[in-house]
Records
---
Amino acid sequence: MNKPFRGKSVRVLPGSAAVMAAVLVQAVPATTATSAAATAARTAAAAPQGLSCDTGKHAVDDHTGYALCRNNGSTTQTFWVHLVCGWSPDVDGEHVTLSPGQSGQSTAHCAGLGTGIGEIHVRP
């Protein structure tokens, strides 16, 4: 079937739209809403042993991320936040050393020209 397009003809193959849609569905990851329990499970799994951490984006600046951790272990621990920044280079926050029972925060900032924070990790 020929369809005119600005003075030129374009040939559309039968079923090609369905094939292209199937390719696009496989190429683009699906995003799903996560529950608070699933988010907490991911955060707990990402924290090094002996630390309990909360991670997130800054309330006003989507390019700034943090890890707020408490040392629940019996030895001194050091951690830092690692941000996956999309198109910009990934960045690490300041290294924070905590004695047993102490809490502390590490922050980092993705470049403003990129797509913002894609993932937040806590590194030992």
Note: The helical segments are 16-27, 36-46.
---
Amino acid sequence: MDTPLHFPLGKPVAITLPRCYDGEAEALCALLDAGAPVIHIRKPDAPAAQVEALLRQLRDAGADMTRLTLHHDAALARRYGLGGIHLREGALREWLRQHPDKRHATAQGASAPDVQKTQTQQTQQGNDTYTPRLSTPAHSWEEAARLAPLCDYVTLSPLFDSVSKPGYLAGIDPADACRRLRRRTDETAKPIPAAIPAELPVSGSGSRIIALGGITPDNISVARAAAFDGAAVIGAVWTTEWLGTDPQPDPKNSDRTPSPGNRPPAGTPSHDISRIDLTATLSNYQRLTRRWQAAGGTLQFISDGDPAAAEAFLQGGGRWVQLRMKDTPAEGIIARGREILALCRRYDALLIVNDDPRLAKAIGADGVHLGQNDTPPDEARIILGRQAIIGCTANTFAHIARIAQSSADYIGLGPFRYTTTKKNLSPILGEEGYRRILRQMARAGIRLPVAAIGGITEEDVPQVMACGVNGIALSGAISRAGEIAAATARFTELVAAHRTIVTP
């Protein structure tokens, strides 16, 4: 089945809390504006009238309804032109039995607003032409393998202990997930040869697996490292504030599940009134997004500012450029940075600027990479804002432990070996140094994404990735390659094929 979504998803999927809250429509609109690719409307503890009222508010606010997925109510989703429905296996098979020839209009070139308008018109005219995305839950690899061919994506859970469901404990091993998924696709979701037979189908979009369960900013990078096609988050997205109690409670409004945000005092009756804290919720989502994107930087090109080399890297499938123009005046860095940023936007890639958060801000880059003697990451966060990706250089576990206490999103760890592209080189780590530091990180519960850097060649990739790093950063191996696009494609494939997650 085709789908308008591009996998792996660029940002996390948000799932609503089980009941309805004051201010929820505004918060959902804000998450859509922040780039959430899909938001699941899941309301098991809310009366049907409240769910429909929420959808009406979203529609009236001009929300992109095609990026919303409703759980378990296809009729209501169709009535409001939602882009997706999430059904359990029995209901999914029944829907497919009743609609055997449905395909997605967006997969045939229509824009999301045109699809929404068309679906609304068809619904009003009574035409049975609703073509939503289909998704379904799974709780084991066997179940995921059975259901994946039937829908656009499967949510597989729980990857970690649930935040929103006490007692719902992790059941999917991330290291096992990495072994199952790493040879299925590369970062651009193109099938690659597998030396080990895949447990899941790889044809079409029906093999997309979204990680779910207990995902937070501190562990979302593990889901990305394991090669899941996306991460769906419930409890770590939302912050609520308690407003008081309703003097005339609606007996039909069940509040069985407490909010994972700010909770009312113990003994509060079930008819408490809460609202979504918009500012805190948006901040939560931005932090989740930064960590997800940082973990997706599996192949980073450290560019000296040559636009032709940067574009060739992007043409070869690279999606992360770090601009490092040492000894260049600020005006020249800004001008060249904006030129390369335009290229990155054309290829849906990220641009990170080396050393200076103010230059990164002037360019409009996605973030900054800081050396040990540069601006501290928390100061850079104040300059760049909550949405910016911030990386830091490290050479020892002690460096990493300090970085983990800051607002940084990833670590550049190195050097792997001697390199001529960097002055004042830190002590060489080699394979053993990486293994030691990654094991220390695992034991300490530090899950920041790590990119290995320093003189890495194609022949080094399998052993470097086996140490447990998220990816690699390259300079000369790309810029001095005879065919930069071809070299990029080879590195991308090697990195995807040798992903490894280190466990304590």
Note: The first helix runs from residue 24 to 33.
